[in-house]
Specification:
Order of helices and strands: HHHHHEHEEEEEEH
CATH class of one domain: Alpha Beta
Radius of gyration: 26 Å
CATH superfamily of one domain: MucB/RseB, C-terminal domain
CATH architecture of one domain: 2-Layer Sandwich
Helix content: 40-55%
Shape: elongated
Distance between the termini: 44 Å
CATH topology of one domain: Phosphorylase Kinase, domain 1
Number of strands: 7
Protein backbone atom coordinates (compact mmCIF):
# COMPACT_ATOMS: atom_id res chain seq x y z
CA UNK A 1 0.00 0.00 0.00
CA UNK A 2 1.33 3.44 -0.98
CA UNK A 3 1.43 6.36 1.45
CA UNK A 4 -1.05 8.44 -0.56
CA UNK A 5 -3.75 5.79 -0.27
CA UNK A 6 -2.84 4.98 3.33
CA UNK A 7 -3.38 8.59 4.41
CA UNK A 8 -6.90 8.47 2.97
CA UNK A 9 -7.69 5.48 5.19
CA UNK A 10 -5.89 6.37 8.43
CA UNK A 11 -8.81 8.37 9.87
CA UNK A 12 -11.28 5.54 9.25
CA UNK A 13 -8.74 3.04 10.63
CA UNK A 14 -8.44 4.91 13.94
CA UNK A 15 -12.23 4.66 14.45
CA UNK A 16 -12.49 0.97 13.44
CA UNK A 17 -14.54 1.77 10.32
CA UNK A 18 -12.50 -0.34 7.88
CA UNK A 19 -13.31 -3.89 6.95
CA UNK A 20 -10.89 -6.60 8.10
CA UNK A 21 -8.90 -6.79 4.87
CA UNK A 22 -8.38 -3.03 4.66
CA UNK A 23 -7.52 -2.80 8.37
CA UNK A 24 -4.85 -5.50 7.99
CA UNK A 25 -3.39 -3.72 4.94
CA UNK A 26 -3.11 -0.41 6.75
CA UNK A 27 -1.66 -2.03 9.88
CA UNK A 28 1.05 -3.62 7.75
CA UNK A 29 1.79 -0.28 6.10
CA UNK A 30 1.92 1.59 9.41
CA UNK A 31 4.36 -1.00 10.71
CA UNK A 32 6.81 -0.14 7.94
CA UNK A 33 6.20 3.58 7.36
CA UNK A 34 7.25 5.93 10.14
CA UNK A 35 5.60 9.00 8.57
CA UNK A 36 2.18 7.38 8.28
CA UNK A 37 2.54 5.86 11.75
CA UNK A 38 3.19 9.33 13.17
CA UNK A 39 0.12 10.68 11.41
CA UNK A 40 -1.99 7.83 12.81
CA UNK A 41 -0.71 8.50 16.32
CA UNK A 42 -1.39 12.23 15.87
CA UNK A 43 -5.03 11.58 14.92
CA UNK A 44 -5.48 9.19 17.86
CA UNK A 45 -3.90 11.70 20.24
CA UNK A 46 -6.30 14.39 19.04
CA UNK A 47 -9.27 12.08 19.61
CA UNK A 48 -8.08 11.20 23.12
CA UNK A 49 -7.60 14.87 23.93
CA UNK A 50 -11.09 15.79 22.71
CA UNK A 51 -12.72 12.87 24.52
CA UNK A 52 -10.86 13.48 27.77
CA UNK A 53 -10.88 16.37 30.15
CA UNK A 54 -7.55 17.90 29.20
CA UNK A 55 -9.19 20.74 27.27
CA UNK A 56 -11.21 21.88 30.25
CA UNK A 57 -9.68 24.97 31.83
CA UNK A 58 -10.13 25.61 35.50
CA UNK A 59 -9.95 29.32 36.12
CA UNK A 60 -7.17 30.26 38.61
CA UNK A 61 -8.13 32.11 41.80
CA UNK A 62 -6.69 35.40 40.60
CA UNK A 63 -8.70 35.43 37.33
CA UNK A 64 -11.33 37.73 38.84
CA UNK A 65 -8.65 40.15 40.01
CA UNK A 66 -6.95 40.27 36.59
CA UNK A 67 -10.25 40.63 34.69
CA UNK A 68 -11.31 43.48 36.99
CA UNK A 69 -7.94 45.18 36.52
CA UNK A 70 -8.12 44.92 32.72
CA UNK A 71 -11.69 46.21 32.60
CA UNK A 72 -11.32 49.03 35.13
CA UNK A 73 -12.98 52.07 33.51
CA UNK A 74 -10.99 55.20 32.83
CA UNK A 75 -13.62 57.27 34.62
CA UNK A 76 -12.98 56.69 38.32
CA UNK A 77 -16.44 58.02 39.12
CA UNK A 78 -18.29 55.25 37.18
CA UNK A 79 -20.82 53.41 39.36
CA UNK A 80 -19.29 50.52 41.30
CA UNK A 81 -22.28 48.27 40.46
CA UNK A 82 -21.73 48.79 36.73
CA UNK A 83 -18.07 47.79 37.07
CA UNK A 84 -19.02 44.63 38.96
CA UNK A 85 -21.62 43.70 36.33
CA UNK A 86 -19.14 44.19 33.48
CA UNK A 87 -16.54 42.08 35.24
CA UNK A 88 -19.01 39.27 35.88
CA UNK A 89 -20.11 39.26 32.23
CA UNK A 90 -16.51 39.21 31.01
CA UNK A 91 -15.62 36.38 33.35
CA UNK A 92 -18.66 34.35 32.28
CA UNK A 93 -17.80 34.88 28.62
CA UNK A 94 -14.20 33.77 29.14
CA UNK A 95 -15.15 30.64 31.07
CA UNK A 96 -17.93 29.82 28.60
CA UNK A 97 -15.53 30.02 25.66
CA UNK A 98 -13.09 27.70 27.40
CA UNK A 99 -15.82 25.16 28.18
CA UNK A 100 -17.05 25.28 24.58
CA UNK A 101 -13.73 24.19 23.09
CA UNK A 102 -14.13 20.45 23.84
CA UNK A 103 -17.64 20.46 22.39
CA UNK A 104 -16.47 22.11 19.18
CA UNK A 105 -13.73 19.52 18.83
CA UNK A 106 -16.16 16.69 19.52
CA UNK A 107 -18.66 18.05 16.95
CA UNK A 108 -15.95 18.30 14.29
CA UNK A 109 -14.75 14.80 15.05
CA UNK A 110 -18.27 13.31 15.10
CA UNK A 111 -19.26 14.94 11.81
CA UNK A 112 -16.12 13.68 10.12
CA UNK A 113 -16.63 10.17 11.50
CA UNK A 114 -20.25 10.11 10.30
CA UNK A 115 -19.14 10.97 6.77
CA UNK A 116 -16.49 8.25 6.92
CA UNK A 117 -19.02 5.74 8.21
CA UNK A 118 -21.40 6.48 5.33
CA UNK A 119 -18.57 6.17 2.81
CA UNK A 120 -17.58 2.82 4.35
CA UNK A 121 -21.17 1.48 4.22
CA UNK A 122 -21.80 2.56 0.63
CA UNK A 123 -18.44 1.22 -0.56
CA UNK A 124 -19.03 -2.12 1.19
CA UNK A 125 -22.45 -2.38 -0.48
CA UNK A 126 -20.90 -1.63 -3.88
CA UNK A 127 -18.23 -4.30 -3.39
CA UNK A 128 -20.81 -6.90 -2.27
CA UNK A 129 -22.90 -6.21 -5.37
CA UNK A 130 -19.88 -7.01 -7.55
CA UNK A 131 -18.90 -10.16 -5.62
CA UNK A 132 -22.30 -11.89 -5.71
CA UNK A 133 -25.23 -12.21 -8.10
CA UNK A 134 -27.09 -9.39 -6.32
CA UNK A 135 -26.09 -6.51 -8.60
CA UNK A 136 -29.60 -6.31 -10.11
CA UNK A 137 -33.10 -7.10 -8.88
CA UNK A 138 -34.62 -5.67 -12.05
CA UNK A 139 -32.70 -5.93 -15.33
CA UNK A 140 -33.63 -3.30 -17.91
CA UNK A 141 -32.22 -0.44 -19.96
CA UNK A 142 -35.62 1.27 -19.94
CA UNK A 143 -36.26 3.87 -17.23
CA UNK A 144 -40.01 3.22 -17.59
CA UNK A 145 -39.39 -0.35 -16.44
CA UNK A 146 -36.83 0.33 -13.69
CA UNK A 147 -38.57 3.29 -12.00
CA UNK A 148 -42.01 1.60 -11.58
CA UNK A 149 -40.30 -1.52 -10.21
CA UNK A 150 -39.48 0.40 -7.00
CA UNK A 151 -43.15 1.31 -6.42
CA UNK A 152 -44.42 -0.21 -3.17
CA UNK A 153 -40.94 -1.40 -2.19
CA UNK A 154 -39.73 1.97 -0.85
CA UNK A 155 -41.38 4.94 0.87
CA UNK A 156 -40.11 7.23 -1.90
CA UNK A 157 -39.80 7.23 -5.69
CA UNK A 158 -36.18 7.36 -6.93
CA UNK A 159 -35.27 9.27 -10.07
CA UNK A 160 -34.18 7.02 -12.96
CA UNK A 161 -32.58 8.61 -16.03
CA UNK A 162 -31.48 7.01 -19.29
CA UNK A 163 -27.94 8.11 -20.19
CA UNK A 164 -27.00 5.63 -22.91
CA UNK A 165 -26.59 8.41 -25.48
CA UNK A 166 -24.06 10.07 -23.16
CA UNK A 167 -22.07 6.85 -22.69
CA UNK A 168 -23.53 5.74 -19.33
CA UNK A 169 -26.17 3.10 -20.17
CA UNK A 170 -28.74 2.15 -17.55
CA UNK A 171 -28.68 -1.59 -16.76
CA UNK A 172 -31.23 -1.93 -13.94
CA UNK A 173 -31.70 -1.47 -10.22
CA UNK A 174 -32.07 -3.17 -6.85
CA UNK A 175 -33.03 -2.57 -3.23
CA UNK A 176 -30.24 -2.05 -0.70
CA UNK A 177 -29.76 -0.93 2.90
CA UNK A 178 -27.50 2.00 3.85
CA UNK A 179 -27.44 4.28 6.88
CA UNK A 180 -30.04 2.23 8.78
CA UNK A 181 -32.69 2.56 6.06
CA UNK A 182 -33.74 0.95 2.74
CA UNK A 183 -32.37 2.78 -0.31
CA UNK A 184 -32.65 2.55 -4.09
CA UNK A 185 -29.57 1.44 -6.03
CA UNK A 186 -29.84 2.37 -9.73
CA UNK A 187 -27.07 0.71 -11.73
CA UNK A 188 -25.23 2.14 -14.74
CA UNK A 189 -22.15 1.12 -16.74
CA UNK A 190 -19.29 3.00 -18.30
CA UNK A 191 -17.47 0.55 -20.59
CA UNK A 192 -16.45 -2.25 -18.15
CA UNK A 193 -17.03 -0.16 -15.03
CA UNK A 194 -20.13 -0.51 -12.84
CA UNK A 195 -21.62 2.62 -11.25
CA UNK A 196 -23.96 2.17 -8.29
CA UNK A 197 -26.14 5.24 -7.72
CA UNK A 198 -27.65 5.12 -4.20
CA UNK A 199 -30.65 7.36 -3.47
CA UNK A 200 -32.73 8.13 -0.37
CA UNK A 201 -34.74 11.08 1.02
CA UNK A 202 -33.06 13.96 2.85
CA UNK A 203 -33.98 17.26 4.48
CA UNK A 204 -30.70 18.87 3.39
CA UNK A 205 -30.61 21.69 0.84
CA UNK A 206 -29.41 21.09 -2.71
CA UNK A 207 -25.62 20.78 -2.86
CA UNK A 208 -22.81 20.33 -5.36
CA UNK A 209 -21.17 16.88 -5.71
CA UNK A 210 -18.56 16.27 -3.01
CA UNK A 211 -15.78 13.80 -3.89
CA UNK A 212 -14.10 11.27 -1.62
CA UNK A 213 -12.29 7.94 -1.87
CA UNK A 214 -12.68 4.79 0.20
CA UNK A 215 -10.76 1.51 -0.18
CA UNK A 216 -9.69 2.51 -3.69
CA UNK A 217 -13.21 3.37 -4.91
CA UNK A 218 -14.31 6.88 -5.90
CA UNK A 219 -17.47 8.43 -4.42
CA UNK A 220 -19.50 11.51 -5.27
CA UNK A 221 -22.23 12.69 -2.91
CA UNK A 222 -24.77 15.45 -3.51
CA UNK A 223 -28.35 16.47 -2.66
CA UNK A 224 -31.09 17.59 -5.02
CA UNK A 225 -34.88 17.86 -4.90
CA UNK A 226 -35.07 16.42 -1.37
CA UNK A 227 -32.91 13.37 -2.17
CA UNK A 228 -29.38 12.34 -1.23
CA UNK A 229 -27.44 10.74 -4.09
CA UNK A 230 -24.16 8.84 -3.78
CA UNK A 231 -22.40 7.47 -6.88
CA UNK A 232 -19.72 4.80 -6.30
CA UNK A 233 -17.41 3.22 -8.86
CA UNK A 234 -13.82 2.34 -9.71
CA UNK A 235 -14.28 4.66 -12.69
CA UNK A 236 -11.81 7.56 -12.83
CA UNK A 237 -12.92 10.69 -10.92
CA UNK A 238 -13.31 12.85 -14.04
CA UNK A 239 -15.79 10.52 -15.75
CA UNK A 240 -17.63 9.86 -12.49
CA UNK A 241 -18.11 13.62 -12.06
CA UNK A 242 -19.33 13.84 -15.67
CA UNK A 243 -21.89 11.16 -14.79
CA UNK A 244 -23.04 13.12 -11.73
CA UNK A 245 -23.42 16.34 -13.70
CA UNK A 246 -25.64 14.57 -16.25
CA UNK A 247 -27.99 13.63 -13.40
CA UNK A 248 -28.28 17.19 -12.10
CA UNK A 249 -30.73 18.93 -14.46
CA UNK A 250 -30.33 22.50 -15.66
CA UNK A 251 -32.78 24.60 -17.66
CA UNK A 252 -31.21 23.33 -20.88
CA UNK A 253 -31.28 19.60 -20.02
CA UNK A 254 -34.06 17.04 -19.84
CA UNK A 255 -36.52 17.43 -16.94
Amino acid sequence: MECERARLLIDAYTTDELDLAAALDIEEHLGGCAACARESESIQSLRRAVAGGSLRYEAPPDLRRRVLADLRPADAEAPRASRRRTARLAMAAAVGALLLLPWLGLYWNTTRSAANQLAAEVTASHIRSLMTDHLLDVVSTDQHTVKPWFNGKLDFSPSVTELAAEGFPLVGGRLDYVGDRPVAAVVYRRHQHVINLYTWPTTQADSEPSASEHNGYHLLRWSRDGMTCVAVSDLNPQELRQFAELLRPTPTTRP
